[in-house]
Structure formats: C-alpha cells, structure tokens
Design goal:
The chain is mostly beta strands. It folds into 2 domains: about 180 residues, Sandwich (Immunoglobulin-like), CATH 2.60.40.3800; about 40 residues, no CATH class. Helices cover about 15% and strands about 35% of the residues. A hairpin with a 2-residue loop joins strand 10 and strand 11.
C-alpha cells in the first residue's frame, strides 16, 4: 500500500465508511472502474460521480472533491492517505490534454492546446500524488477540510493507466481554542443552514460534534454578534490571503471606515 503524509497547522462513492474518534476523522472512498472512450487521437477517461480535469497541456484525469467536516474546535495536524489495491487497465492509452479556457460566447478561431511534451514523454507516474490539500473553508461556522483525491494514475510514455478501488483518508486533529471562539461567533444551527452543510460534506454524521456549542445566530433574524464589534466594511478572503488585506483594513479604518 502507498502511504502519503502531510503536516499542517491549519488548516463516495455511495459506499462511504466514516468514523470520528478523539482527534481523528477517518473516511474511505470507493471508486468504480474508469470508462475510457476514444475521441479523435486521444482517450477520454471518466469515473462516474467525479469531475475530470487537467491543466492546459496536461493529462485530464478524474478527481474526487473531498469535503471533510472537522470536529468543532479542532484544526488539522496531520493527514494520512492510504491506497487500496492498484488495478491496471489492459491496453495502452493516450489521455487527452487539458485545454486553455475560453468564454462560452466565443465563436472565433480556436487553437487546441497540444500535450505538454515533457509530461507526455515521461515514464514518471502522473499526477505523482494521490491527493492534494486545497484549503480549510468555513461555512456557517462549520470547518471543512477540502482535498483533491486522484484515484487514477497514468504513465504517459508507456500509455499505462491504473486506478485504486478505494482510498482511505485519515485526518488527525488538535485542539484550537482560538478557532473555537470564531466558531461560536459564526455558528448557525438552524435547520436550513445545518441542512446545507450536511448536503455539502462527506461525513454528515459527524456534525453532532457542533451540538454542544452555543448558538449565537439564527437564520432569518437580524442579530448582531456583538454590538460593540460592528463595522462598516467587511473583507472576505481565505486564510492564505488574509495577511495581504491587513494594510487595506488598517487604511480604511484610519479614514473613518471601520473595516474587518
């Protein structure tokens, strides 16, 4: 079995096995065999329920968008990804390359993006990793780890295609008092908001870890979390870009527009 690990401070198919223990979330994703269709000089590979994507010039492969709810008041400490049995498909394939994006309304001449010669002439497995950590998002106060999982492996030069029938993701978490404070300020526990989160995540049964947190906002009611902490201007961004907006927030506040 292949074992991949990544450290961090922050941050399924139909048959999904999930377990939540103290400081750990475990999810198993099962994948069906890929369907491969010949389209012109290339082969198009798809797995039902997954999106197929690829950067311009790079092989287009199926990707599972994993959305894993983290336990309330905890952040990612370590991620383990454990692959099941690798299944090799018979035959040789030339997987279609990704194309440069163009507007849907564009009707003029369009030049197809050719395969990246360095990648397609290589014996190195592509994409070379089983998963990629995208980010940790917060929706209505619920913290969601987003991963891209790659069940298909392609060796371009030989045309060999293989896939994993199952992949298990094990997320180790640690306590984060500051994060819990933010969750308490933002958390929505009304039926509509909770339903939206449940539909989004892969482990809806684990939403119960948020049950003990006091609700400070109810959807449909104009409630201020803290009247003394109101502001005139809100900047919405992700954690990676947050430091870039600190200067702007300070500038606007000095100009009389309280900004957060």
């Amino acid at each position: 079995m292949r074992h991949c690990k990544i450290m961090g401070v922050l941050a399924v198919s139909v048959f999904l096995a999930a377990a939540l223990t103290a400081g750990e979330v475990v999810l198993r994703y099962d994948f069906g065999a890929p369907d491969i269709e010949r389209v012109g000089e290339y082969d198009k590979i798809v797995i039902e329920g997954l999106r197929t994507t690829g950067a311009p010039g790079e092989p287009m492969l199926p990707v599972k968008d994993a959305k894993i709810l983290l336990p309330a008041g905890e952040i990612v400490n370590e991620i383990e990804v454990i692959t099941g049995k690798k299944i090799i498909l018979p035959g040789e394939f030339r997987i279609e390359p990704g194309q440069r994006p163009r507007p849907l309304s564009y009707t003029g001449p369009y030049e197809e993006t050719p395969p990246d010669g360095e990648i397609y002439g290589s014996d190195a497995p592509y994409p070379g990793e089983v998963y990629e950590r995208v980010c940790v998002q917060r929706k209505y106060g619920y913290n969601i780890l987003v991963l891209d999982i790659f069940p298909v492996e392609y060796i371009p030069r030989s045309g060999l295609v293989s896939y994993y029938g199952d992949i298990t993701v094990r997320v180790h978490t640690i306590s984060d008092v500051g994060g819990l404070d933010e969750t308490e300020k933002m958390l929505r526990k009304d039926e509509v908001s909770r339903g939206e989160v449940t539909e989004l995540i892969d482990n809806p049964q684990n939403i119960i870890s948020y049950n003990s947190i006091s609700r400070v906002y109810e959807r449909g009611k104009n409630l201020l979390l803290d009247p003394s902490d109101s502001c005139d201007y809100v900047i919405i961004t992700n954690e990676a870009l947050l430091p870039s907006f600190d200067t702007l927030a300070e500038f606007k506040t000095r100009r009389g527009v309280k900004t957060r």
